[in-house]
Amino acid sequence: MSGRRITPSTATMLAILRALLLVVVLAGIGTACALVLLDTLERREQRTLVAQAEEIARQLAAAPPEQAERIIESTGTLLGVTIELLPPSAGPEGRDADAGERGVVVDIPGRTAVLEVTDTSKGLSEDASSILIRFGWLFALASAAWLALVALTSARNQRAIRSILRGVSKFEEGELAHRIPLSGTREWDLISLTMNRMARRLSERVQLLRNQRLQQSAILESMSSAVIALDRNLNLISANHAATSLFGIEQSNRGGSLKDILHEPELHRIIENVLDSGVREAREFESEVLEGRRLSVIAEQMRVNEQKTIGAVVLIDDVTDIRQLERMRSDFAANVSHELRTPITNIQGYVETLQDIDLDDKEQLRRFLGIIQRNSERLGMIIEDLLTLARLEQPEDALGADLHPMSLSRIIEEVIDRQDPAAQRRSIKLDSTCSDRLEILTRGDLLVEAISNLVSNAIRYGPEHSSVQIEATMQDDNGLIRIAVTDQGAGIPASHVPRLFERFYRVDKARSRAEGGTGLGLAIVKHIALVHGGNVGVETVAGKGSTFLLEIPGSSMPISNTT
Length: 563
Hints:
There is one protein chain. The protein has helices at 8-62, 68-79, 124-172, 186-222, 241-247, 258-261, 265-277, 320-356, 362-392, 395-398, 408-425, 444-461, 509-514, 521-531; strands at 82-86, 102-107, 114-119, 226-231, 236-239, 281-286, 294-303, 309-318, 404-407, 429-433, 439-442, 467-474, 480-486, 535-540, 546-553. The chain is an alpha+beta fold. β14 and β15 form a beta hairpin. α3 packs parallel to α4 (186-222).
């Protein structure tokens, strides 16, 4: 409903006009009543005067003529009127009374004269008229005072209403800390105090709800699992930070259909089943949106109470890494069992053979003992490498307090000294390129072991009469020192590259065991890089050799190769 807005000043004028109209109505009613009263009094006085005149006329008619003067004088004095005998020509309708006088003319029975009776005194009508005039003035003054009081009261009320309206507007805008000032009028002050109390209580409740919402939001946002809330029509209600990061959901997607926001059919089927059946559902599946990722989903109806369902809440976890670690752990258990079983079985078999053969055959005995020795050495290498990995998985134990800067060229020289005999047996040349001013913060034996493992692999799997290149350079973009070990071997198929640094993983299992490897060398290299804050990598092309990369943070104070 629309209409002209009434301002406080207009409301005051309307109140005054209403009061003035009431005064006019009351004045009109009072005037009409006064006129009726005056007319009634005048008629009554006139009737009384006529009755007196007729009575005097009867007395004069009954009395002798000589007593007429005495009767007129005594009666006029008694009644306070003026009595005159007039000739017949001045009949009742032949003469008017003077202004301010009430008079009548009557015939005297049996006489030829007429009687005029005039009352010159003030009658009740004149007294009433005088009283009414005074009352009128008093009424006018009272009305003026009343109108002034109405105007003042209306203005004061309008100020109070205006103040309350301003306060209500601020409350509506959310300024609940505002307080409506008191006007001094008890009724309006009671309203103001009530509204101020209401605003304070509302502010407390809003703050409580805000705190609860912030707590709930903080809990949801801090969860590592993606949480999505949907209504019964699969429209998105909310999604926490983990969900927005996992699926790329944006704030503008709120209220949109999940089918339009996230094209994950299996997830949609799970949610629809939960909404239809009301039964909690947990399932894992391969994501169609996130390639190569496996998702674990737990969906359940979202209820206000036991009877009313308003939607569904979905908990989503990316379990790809967990399942991969479980697979790696399973593979590691199987691989380590297999790797340990092979030398143990060989040792047990040859020991049993030695127990059955003639010990006088020295050559046969030496051959069997040599096999037992090689298998025991292999068993010892595997155990030693496993212990090394276990130690490297505790970085504080791997490095600890004995971390110190070392010249990288000196480390590479020590690696070459260690691996040179194996290289000479296969006629492989070891070349190195490293600046004398490169240094690294490490414990020397760890980095020597890592580079040695890379060089040993390059010698073992590279062709005879080839070379192995060791190159160390400083990377300007990230401050890392890159150590590259390049061989001229057959290269590694691309399908094997992602798993090269896993424990016991071999590209060519038969050749690896024949060459005496444990399958743990590259895993050890990776862990040594990690405990130094670095990383590993490989660049390989089938048929053109491989380059294994070890990147380690360099020292901030380069030194010359003098230590």
